[in-house]
UniProtKB/TrEMBL annotation, chain A:
Family per similarity comment: Belongs to the SKP1 family.
Subunit structure: Part of a SCF (SKP1-cullin-F-box) protein ligase complex.
Presence of the UniProt keyword Methyltransferase in the record: no
Name of the protein in its database record: SKP1-like protein
Source organism: Digitaria exilis
SMART domains cross-referenced by the UniProt entry: Skp1
From TrEMBL, chain B:
Compositional bias per record (Basic residues), positions renumbered to this chain: 1-23
Segments of this protein annotated with the region Disordered: 1-38
InterPro entries in alphabetical order: F-box-like_dom_sf, F-box_dom
Protein's name in the database: F-box domain-containing protein
Signal peptide: none
PANTHER family associated with the record: F-BOX DOMAIN CONTAINING PROTEIN-RELATED
One Pfam family cited in the UniProt record for this chain: F-box-like
UniProt domain F-box: residue ranges: 42-76
């Protein structure tokens, strides 16, 4: 529903302000410019939809100071790929509610899209998706990160995510005793 | 390789201070960490939640919680678990062997510990951890068999009929060892924790037998080794009706203050309104369904039957007449209502429909109760003699006598002919008979088991609210 509304508003804006353009230009924190389909941006990002509808899109590049060029490139890439893929019912329903909806499995192309990302690029993309209100992309990236945790021991999880172990020796021993069953190795 | 990327990343993450402009109100970064650390520390809490919520197995969640304190805080937060699909997931079933089966119909004898059969392969836990083989001698006097009698959450209730007997009864009661109060332990297989429960003190002036012991959630609706209750339903002489009996409910709860067994007052449980035959065999446990326990009560004189119901939420008894519409004009005058021929099952999937499974004259009948009434509607029927023809191992001697219900579950019923233990199941959706499934290998009920959710681990650094609630005392 949200998506449709964004689209409607976007179309109205197009009539009023910049009828000749069907892309928007986004500017990363380090000053790089990216073009993205206006329709896809409005459909996939609640924040961009709001900006387009509110006329706060800058023809010379809308400043997105919070997003680095690598992450913004991925965002734009995702939007363009999404525009080319057939939107399924699953996508629409999963983007309606934020925290409560049962998670929809990513589609094959989305899986591939996040699989090729480096660890850091993935986390940057999560934050960009969060900032831009791109709930489907947030879903897909969170899914990927959770996959990276599955079947791993606490030690392995710390290693993969470069987490500092802030438990004391005594606490670790306690955890070990209480949760021995939940760990692979003990 | 990874560290190289990390260094690079720090550079382009400079304009970071204003990042909390996101729509959600976020906790600031907690983990101090060296400046070279990256990635997951910077993720706002609500995104971390989104990630962790996708871990389907609570074992995975616990491993994540053991990685660092920030994650543990997120996972143990008050609003996390209710949203988490992995809490309360059935990890598998313990298939028990019915002890009465051995005594009454021991051909061929099947004994041994209950067998754990996992529900799916994505548990991420070594299946051997579920084993009830008591290598560590945790169970007291484990040389003689413990019987699995109930399960709830991650807990199992094991009981063992005592050889000395609960009461020194005389006369016919002395023979009914199976209705004396057993030795009882509550056991959590995965953590290998075990708690023996003392028997309730019998009241001397009452002739008391046991109708069943069951696990209930703790006072606050949680279940775990530090929070559970037991319910014992006893069969006692009726307070006002001569020559009749009535049920009495006792509840065991934990706690230094006022823990132990407590007899619930008859006024609150409505006990005296439920009149039972004195002969205890005429009241048979029929099943647990939709939050209630059911017994079938067979009256001596007119062949009438009723159900005794104990509502686990209201903690009271009721007696419901049982009119299944099968006596009219047919020849079932001499049929019995016992656990081999009558079971009650629930229907979580179809919104709590109550069903009765009847086995009469080798016909398995399924009836569903019409909502809000005591009216039963026939849903399905299988003629076992005909339906099993041609199945491997099917002997023509079978079904001379009545077949028996071995176990009844929401989706299926396990049945055997009386002549020999030859187990097969009837799918209640399709009413088809089937013999190959693993569930047909055990002559007894299957008890669901969930993964434990260690409250002490979670409370240690979790929200204060959670910790203090647990300290409250029982009503």
């Amino acid at each position: 529903m949200e998506v449709d509304k964004g689209k409607g508003e976007a179309e109205e804006t197009r009539k009023v302000a910049e009828a000749d353009r069907d892309t928007v230009t986004l500017k990363s924190s380090d000053g790089k410019l990216f073009e993205v389909s206006k329709e896809a941006a409005a459909r996939l990002s609640t924040v961009l939809a709001g900006m387009i509808a509110g006329g706060s899109i800058d023809d010379n590049g809308t400043d997105l100071k919070q997003i680095g060029s690598e992450a913004l490139e991925n965002v734009v890439d995702y939007c363009n790929k999404h525009a080319n893929s057939i939107p399924s019912a699953a996508l629409i329903s999963s983007s309606i509610s934020f925290n409560t909806a049962p998670f929809k499995e990513p589609e094959e192309w989305e899986r591939k899209f996040v699989d090729r990302l480096s660890h850091d690029a993935l986390f940057d993309l999560v934050e960009a998706a969060n900032f831009l209100g791109m709930e489907r992309l947030l879903d897909v990236t969170c899914h990927k990160i959770s996959e990276m945790m599955k079947g791993k021991s606490p030690d392995q999880i710390r290693e993969v995510f470069n987490i500092k172990n802030d438990y004391t020796k005594e606490e670790l021993e306690e955890i070990r005793q209480e949760l021995a069953w939940a760990f692979y190795d003990d | 390789m990874a560290s190289e990327r990390r260094r690079r990343r720090r550079k382009d993450k400079k304009p970071k201070t204003k990042r909390r402009a996101s729509r959600k109100h976020d906790e600031q970064l907690v983990a101090p960490g060296p400046p070279s650390s990256t990635g997951v520390h910077d993720v706002p809490v609500h995104i971390l939640e989104l990630i962790l919520l996708r871990l389907r197995s609570s074992a995975c969640l616990l491993r994540a919680a053991a990685a660092c304190k920030r994650w543990r805080r997120v996972i143990s937060g008050a609003d996390f678990l209710p949203r988490c699909s992995s809490s309360g997931v059935v990890a598998g079933h313990y298939h028990a062997f019915d002890p009465d089966w051995l005594a009454d119909y021991g051909s061929p004898p099947v004994t041994g510990n209950p067998v754990f059969v996992p529900s799916n392969s994505s548990l991420a836990i070594d299946r051997r951890r579920f084993s009830l083989d008591d290598d560590d001698d945790l169970l007291p006097a484990s040389d003689t068999g413990w019987t699995l009698t109930d399960s709830r959450g991650s807990l199992l209730l094991l009981s063992k009929r005592s050889t000395t007997g609960w009461r020194r009864d005389t006369g016919w009661r002395a023979n009914i060892n199976s209705h004396s109060f057993p030795d009882v332990v509550v056991y959590e297989p995965l953590t290998r924790r075990c708690q023996g429960i003392l028997r309730p003190e019998p009241e001397e002036h009452h002739a008391t037998c046991l109708l069943g012991v069951f696990l209930l959630d703790g006072c606050h609706g949680h279940i775990g080794m530090s929070e559970f209750r037991l319910l014992a339903v006893l069969h006692e002489d009726h307070v006002s009706e001569h020559g009749r009996a009535m049920p009495v409910a006792c509840v065991f709860s934990l706690g230094s203050d006022g823990g132990g067994w407590r007899v619930l007052p008859n006024e609150s449980t409505n006990s005296a309104a439920v009149s039972l035959p004195v002969v205890i065999e005429r009241t048979s446990f029929a099943g647990r369904a939709n939050g209630s326990l059911y017994w079938v009560v067979e009256e001596e004189d007119d062949g009438a039957a009723a159900m005794m119901v104990f509502d686990e939420a209201a903690m009271n008894f009721s007696r419901v007449p049982l009119i299944l519409g099968e006596n009219e004009g047919d020849s079932y005058d001499d049929h019995h209502y016992d656990r081999w021929s009558f079971r009650v099952i629930g229907g979580v999937e179809d919104g709590g429909v109550l069903r009765v499974v009847r086995l009469v004259c080798n016909e398995l009948r399924v009836l569903a109760r019409r909502r809000g009434t005591d009216e039963w509607v026939a849903e399905g029927l299988v003629r076992l003699r005909e339906a099993t023809l041609g199945m491997p191992g099917r002997d023509e001697r079978f079904f001379q006598r009545d077949a028996m219900v071995v176990a009844a579950h929401e989706g299926y019923v396990v049945v055997t002919p009386q002549e020999k233990t030859w187990l097969f199941s009837v799918d209640l959706k399709t009413m088809e008979v089937e013999r190959e499934h693993e569930r047909n290998r055990y002559a007894g009920p299957a008890f669901p088991s969930e993964l434990p959710w260690p409250p002490s681990f979670m409370a240690a650094c979790g929200s204060r609210e959670r910790g203090s609630r647990r300290r409250g005392s029982c009503r």
